[in-house]
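User: Predict the complex.
Assistant: Input components as received:
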Amino acid sequence: MVVNKLNKELVMELVSQVSDPEIPALSVIEMGMVRDVIISDDFVEVIITPTYSGCPAMHQISHDIKKVLNDEGIEAQIKTQLSPAWTTDWMSEETLDKLRLSGISPPHGRSNELDPDNLFNVIKVPANAECPFCRSENTRTLSEFGSTACKSLHFCDDCLQAFDHFKCH
Amino acid sequence: MTYTNNIKEALYRYSLKHGDDRLILGHRLSEWCGHAPILEEDLALANIGLDLLGQSVLWLKYASELQGIGKNEDDLAYLRYEREFTNLLLTEQANDDFAYALARQFFFDVYDVLLYSRLKDSNDDTLKGIAQKSLKEAVYHLRHSSEWILRLGDGTEISHEKISNAVEDLWMYTGEMFMSNDDDVLLASEGIGVDVSTLKDEWYSKVSEVLEKATLSVPPIDAFMQKGGRNGIHTEDLGFILADMQYLRRSFPDAKW
């Protein structure tokens, strides 16, 4: 590949082949983790933002992004950016549908800015998260902490299946 | 951002102590993995521990950059001795039982939310980024721990007794959170850090609100308080955590996964 033909669209297209190993249905771009791509003369810098501070998938993701670019002969550096903090608000409607299709109930509503006058008013896990399988809301929360940092665990009383819910964050 | 040496050194120690708090408490919580009373709590405590561990990486990484002698966050976590750790005594207290773990967590979570809610407006971009990211996690942790205080306090006779004992026994470790040192005062005056002594009243009022709702008695704000963690003087518990945590790294230097 000729380096001077590099453009942002091409890099983004390559990066979009990388997915979160714990949510393979979504690419890192759909997750809202890739904030920017900066192209300089001899390398490409990909700026990513972590979902949760302790997300163990971050190392794998950085590694995978580098690899997919290196495979095309592109020298890449990954830079982690913390601010603005990642939020589920950065997922598009289309992304939410993809989550649903992969059996994960998407975030409910938008992550509201914390009310400075009421710090302890916490974002809640919905009591009746929509079941990704039958779309019923006749469901209940089993655990506010789930299989990964970003999910909670629920049960559908209509189709009798347990399901993950992607927490609004 | 360029700082004078004075501020840089203060910020190094500041990042180190906040990193240490989260590293040690995160490790304490990880000890519940596979041992919690119910599966949901196994998930919850392990997840909260993971968040804290992730936050400690951010703090210690910054500390190592400020230190500027070629160490990284892993060196700081795995190759320092007890006297070099400046975490709060509260964070190292042993998991005597589930009630102790939750009372410890609740006291810390209220402080954590207050601390991050001020730090998110820091003049220092890194601290600001860490705080913005971590605040969302901290409020979720607090929701979990405060609900357990209510459930245990206003639960059965036994659960009430256990959480009462935990609150009473751990209370003397809470005062240290609000003891400012020269670094806190300096960094607060520069708009970089938070003077923790200014968080005390709000902390006490939130803690009192939850304890009262849980039918528990609220210990006095001016009770005798232990200190020492911030100066590297620790309780016996810390050495055992470090032995556990640092064993592999010290036995197999530079081992890779």
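DSSP finds ten helices and no strands in chain B.
Let me know if you want any component modeled separately.
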